[in-house]
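Incident log entry.

Two folding requests arrived from the same account within the same minute. Monitoring flagged them as a possible duplicate submission, but the sequences differ. Recording both here for audit purposes.

Request one:
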Amino acid sequence: MKKYLSFFIIRLTTGLQYRAAALAGISTQFAWGGMTLLMFRAFYQYSSSAFPMTFRELSSYIWLQQAFLALYMSWYFDNDIFDSITSGSIAYELCRPVDLYTMWFAKNAAVRMSRAVLRCMPILVIAAFLPEPFNVSLPASFLSGLLFLISMIMGFLVLVAFSMLIYITALYTLSPLGIRVVATSAIEFFTGAIIPLPFFPQSIRNIVHLLPFAYIQNTPFLIYNGYISGTEMYKSILLQAVWLLLLWASGKLLMKRALKKVIVQGG
């Protein structure tokens, strides 16, 4: 376990060095969050339809989404991993006395965390001082805040575990581009990154909640703003744990099978 922690720390400290990129990301995400809220505000003011969340709840959801975008962004993949597969340098990694799945998992998690650490606090601090109802509010309750932290970690691990399946499929294909495009589109839509899941029709939500995507960023953010409360919070976190175990076990099994047939060409 110590060696995997070393991989994690190395990638984390490396990612923390890109402060200029973080500043650019903060300004971009703050502008994007503001435009998204203004768009929804127009719908709330000029539509006679009932909305599933109050605008205050939605505001907290949007700012949390922007603050932790680097943690949950679907389009990020570690190109070093893909390059090692397509170039054949994975042969060097296979010579190391490490579990390849765990090493890739640690590296992927570290890079995402390093980017989120640099960006989340400035966005949340600025959003907290915005006028109501455009600001991010405190958690619905102390328990919601505590379970939000637990759920956020679980959702993060679910996303990384799902991303590992994408890396592994690259071992079976000539190019990882196609599966990346399909996976990114699916994750982006079904996690609520484009439209929060409570705004989906009930029939579609019933399907989405059978998939792992609803238990990534959607669950912790809805716990935070109070949309999910009571026993539903515990049930949602339990489902996150179930999906994490299923995805992790699937990834380990697929990796084991894939490595039995790896052929590295060239000299």
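Request two (distinct sequence, not a duplicate):
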Amino acid sequence: MIESLRVRNFKCFGDVTLPLSPLTLLTGLNGAGKSSAIQALLVLRQSSEQGLLDQGRLALNGDLVQIGTASDALYGYAEDEQIAFELVTDGVSREWVFNYDKRADVLKGVAPPPARLAMPSTDGTTSTGLFGDAFQYLCAERVGPRTAFSTSDFLVRERRQLGMRGELTAHFLATFGKERLAPGPLLRPEAASFDLLAQVETWLGFISPGTRLQVTAHRAMDAVQLGYQFVSGSDVTDVYRPTNVGFGLTYTLPILVAVLSARPGTLVIIENPEAHLHPRGQARMGELLALAASSGVQIILETHSDHVLNGVRVAVHDGKLSPDRVRIHFFERIDHADRAIHELTSPQMDRDGRIDCWPAGFFDEWDAALDQLLVPSAR
């Protein structure tokens, strides 16, 4: 598990260290630094996938993230013009340092000692899921409803990837839907079986009650179709195309598959899991992610949803996840005399799911609106 990430002179950060836990929530206003923290991890993985990281080079642009030029990556107020990333994983520190060449607008790596590089394990992955196949990243802009979804035998069958937009989720379910999941708190006993597809369908119905899922592969066309049915008592509807039901079902499906199919040691990064979900569904999504974190999966989550947060809090309150396995980071952009400073506050959660501090802007809009409504209106 990644225990901390330190970022120096990267994008909006001068020098920040993010302690990480099995479940880490990144919160804060837009433009405060949440995405930049995630991009620090993604640019390391992207550089590793392109075979550049061990050569002392950083891939700023690729499939996972598009940062631009070196000047776009460099912190605007950097004093030494050196970008650095440090990961602490299972007590081992790994650091990558890059010098900024202003004339060429490129980054030149200062290679770390070989002992500090991520070493592969016997199963072909590294000691952190960030650099191996035990990794999933789902960005905020996921694939919406389609009449059919694309396939990739290499990414799905060989690497067990869903695609950063979840575009391969249907193919993943068609391929691994009958895979039996290991016992654990994520499994719902009311499901038809402990197979992946049955569990995904049951969780989908828990988040959006009455929903059933159908997956149909058309191998000759290299496409997979999804279908949804709705159950009310003994009545079951016809199968509907995703384009004829709400966005929330298709948008949520990659998250369910990523979490339920993840094996212990997997790193899952998710942006805005609340998108297109009603409040009850968002709270139940929080419970799902808390259960995943209790099962040996590391979740890094960017969210603007107090309902997702409260779902995690309730899970902690109910004893489904220990509070010391949760971290919350609240990012702020504070205007000083000559510059904007990005600062970090890390509220703590106790055994009852209570949070020790609520800085201004930290999921307080409901209270702010209520206070305003309690003031008699002007007639």
